[in-house]
Amino acid sequence: MAIKDLNLSAKATIDGFMNGINKSTIKGPGLEFSQYRSYQPGDDLRTLDWKMFARSDRYYIRESEVETNIAVRFLVDASASMNHSDGDFTKIEYARYLTACLAYLANLQGDAIGLYIFKNTELFAMVAKQDYQHLARLFFQLEQINPAGTFTKPIHYKEIFTGTQKRELLVFVTDLYQEQEEIFTLLDTLNTLRHEIVVFHVLSRNELDLDFKGYSTFEDLETGQIIQIDQAKARKDYKEKLTKYLEETRIKMLDRRIYYRTVATDEPLDQALRDFLKQRSKLRI
């Protein structure tokens, strides 16, 4: 994250992560040769290798590799609460970096990538395409995000229905800050489209531990409400309530068959990237 250029940052991270990891493939009638296997009744005769037959007097089928291409759409929460900071980084900076890395990885694997940005009364929509120029445009849009206001209201979700009719992998990066279950309303809307959904719940370390370096006055970034807190006295009760909240959230996601994972802003991305690859491999279109 010290590299401010998203393209370079994502490339450096993914190149390191992918070192030794092979591109996800399946066997099928593609262009790149994979292996031979013995002919079986019912096999397409066009895949017979006659040169192998001439050499061995046996029938062999040429199998090849086909990329498991899908459409991956990234959904980024750009409401004001994503401006919350811990040390040198805000939640939106971590979300921007995480999304850029996942998009770079998806593009590297030949997947079409798209983007939704949710902010106040706006919903920015970027169609899913598969080419490097499109990836560069996605990076540019991520770099322009300036969190403000509250989460986008359901009336603006109509753009979500304009995509492909095929099932897609939707990756939602958010701090799940909501007033009236509006984010779960969005997730329920997405579920009606029968998409595979992954939610990365971004939390800062100082809000996980209630450790704000001695501060006692706190302001809600979205409502402007100000409260006074004695951190030392409130910490135990706060952590108990936070644990309960996170468990309730996990169960809500499970009930909706949504893959859910919390990520702290001081956490390396390796496991989040592995989780993304795991979910991506489950979706076959």
Automatic annotation (TrEMBL):
It holds the Pfam family DUF58. InterPro entries: DUF58, vWFA_dom_sf. It comes from the Bacteria. Residues 35-243 form the DUF58 domain. SUPFAM superfamilies: vWA-like. This is DUF58 domain-containing protein.
